[in-house]
Amino acid sequence: MLRLIQNEWMKIFRRPGTYVMLGMLLIMTSVAGAFIKYQESGGTVPDNAEWKRGLQTQNESYQRQLNEMGEMAPREIQEQYQREIALNTYRIDNDISPNQEYSIWGFVSDTSQLIEFAGLFTIIIAGGIVASEFNWGTIKLLLIRPIKREKILAAKYITVVLFGFLMLFILFAYSAFLGAVLFGFPDEAVPYLYYYNGTVIEQSMGLHLIFYYGLESIHMLMLATMAFMISAVFRNSSLAIGLSLFLMFMGGQVTRLIAMKYDWAKYSLFANTDLLQYFEGIPVIQGMTLGFSVIMIFIYFMIFQVLAFYVFRKRDVAA
User: Fold this and answer.
1) Which structural domain range is residue 136 located in?
2) pTM assigned to the model
3) How far apart are CA 182 and CA 174, in angstroms?
4) Per-block average pLDDT, block size 10, for the chain (319 residues)?
5) Residue 262 lies in a domain
């Protein structure tokens, strides 16, 4: 298996396009760093010594609006205001000011938006790793070896996953390096606060960012898995890449529109891949839980894998 993965890895890095994708990721991160560094407000602390009074006023405003709307308030508004009130109260009680110097952690957090581009590049690799073998006619050279088809396909999928993690690692490591050079480290460690199940939880910024990257990678890997499945089933890299990219950018929005009217939207893949909604936001549909989303992700993952392996094993490549 290791030899097969090594072979697939070498194929990926023989393509000039792979280095173009890596270069684009580094360039976009560098441009973001230069823009933030030299903008007028970059690196300054907000001048607000009375931040506790400001948070108390904000809480009073939120509570007043909740009381005025009563039970007529949309669920999303109620949960959002309750979350903000809890976070503000925790800051006041524990003397954790929201006014912080911009540092390495702020930059890594800002550049985490580029995870979508890492996902885009991973989808491109996943969509072509099987279909390209058929297009180039090299699939026959693979299958004449005394190796099971399932093992060949598994090696290709593992390579896709490893490439996705490589892109995430490069983005995180380069963002941290560039952030340290341009903005430095904070004078004192300030925890990140998030609201989960009615409780405010403290987490170190470094651990939070690793946690954030991990949860964001689920969406990327599920779309890459879908692109891999389409590539194996239909032998068409354009279809695999095009459809996966379309769903990457539009799937979540379409799901939210459907969820406004139909509860069955919670069974959609795109209603469940964003696990951050349970820690830093509001579930798309009331009643959804973290456990439910994990189960749905697992079901979709198994469907994609079963389709890919079944069709690849049964496909006739003699013609």
Assistant:
1) 2-39+99-314
2) 0.84
3) 12
4) 83 89 94 83 56 86 82 74 87 84 87 90 88 70 71 89 93 93 82 82 87 89 91 82 84 84 87 85 80 93 92 67
5) yes
